[in-house]
Amino acid sequence: MDGAHLPVVVVGGGQAGLSVSWWLGRRAIEHVVLERDRVAGEWRNRRWDSFCLVTPNWQCDLPGFPYAGPDPDGFMVRDEIVAYLERYAASFDVPLAEGVAATRLRARREGGFELHTTAGRLSADQVVVAAGPYQVPMRPRMAERLPAGVVQVHSSEYRSPDALPPGAVLVVGTGQSGCQIAEDLHLAGRRVHLATGSAPRVARFYRGRDVVAWLHDMGYYRKAVTEFADADAVRFRVNHYVTGRDGGRDIDLRKFARDGMRLYGHLAGIDGPRLRFTPDLCANLDAADAVSEGIKDSVDAYIAANGIDAPAEARYVPVWEPAEEPDALDLEAAGITSVVWATGFGRDHRWIELPVFDGRGYPTHDRGVTSYPGLYFLGLPWQHTWGSGRFSGIGADAEHLARQIVAHQHRTVHTGLHWLAGTPYQTSPHDDEDWIAPRTVA
Questions:
Q1: Which candidate among 105, 171, 316, 414 keeps its CA 20 to 30 Å from the CA of 277?
Q2: For residue range 332-343, what is the model confidence (pLDDT) as tens digits?
């Protein structure tokens, strides 16, 4: 591999990299997919034992490889997800280089790109960065102030209740990971303390169907980020929490609290064994419920507008209300021996030495196409739609980028004018129906 030149290099061999490889293969575009681990390494190594998808299996629709198992309305667990991706990689002739990490990407003076990898140097005409958005586990600096005897793990390191020392556990964060880990610990009989955040929730089922099915029919997963007035903010919204565990159900923090879990507002500070919280628990719970009920309003309106025969269903009634807003917690008095930081991930694109990032380090792009010719990103949340980055929508994004790659090849070779079968063509980067758009040349 050292010293090789390729038309396209894809960095990342997860669902994003495999999807764009499938489309490139369909167009006979020579390429290689670099995967620093093995296929599905992120799913295998950064998910806990009981992890499962929150979207139903029928939404697993990678290019040329829709879900074909016996339970389309179920939710694949971690090992099934890994097996699904392994089968996908084996289903077509993907030029995969496992155990090879990209360490540096920069422009070549003669055009194209130079990549430094753990297997040597490569050059490429075009590069797709499909390394995913969850690169660096994030912990707040205040974590350094916890007593040395408290075990700390990030959500990406959490595996099971038994892997933590005996005693109570504090989970910080109520995004999807935080809520599901808190439930995992709670169901195992552990005493759980949960510092909540502002993440919204969604009901699992409503009016006879999975809410995901309603939202799919309503077109939510196909809605482009550009249709929102605050498109930039939309890209950084936290996902709604829900679970596919045991066939799928709501995650109701109020129910957890009724059954013994201790809830708090945002974690505000740490002074040794004493923790301080913002008095916003009620606001966090109410806001999450309001989003869930608002989604039900949309479903009701869709059912009514389309004359759909769907069973009526009573609306949610809170099963617990905080008697007070707890503002402090003593770790020693509560018997807390471990903390799980479900505080998200950051991006680390320092290895990319090209001017395509904004002040937050986010790649600036139009549907994955950056301002630097020949460089693309794939697999970002809300890259184009709500389905982007998910098994349900990443294939469409991959196909779009494959079209741009073909168009870029033609532009590079023919300087914008392309003669195919004696017919003049000009590339159309915004055309979603054809790879190339016929155009009369004067």
A1: 316
A2: 999 999 999 999
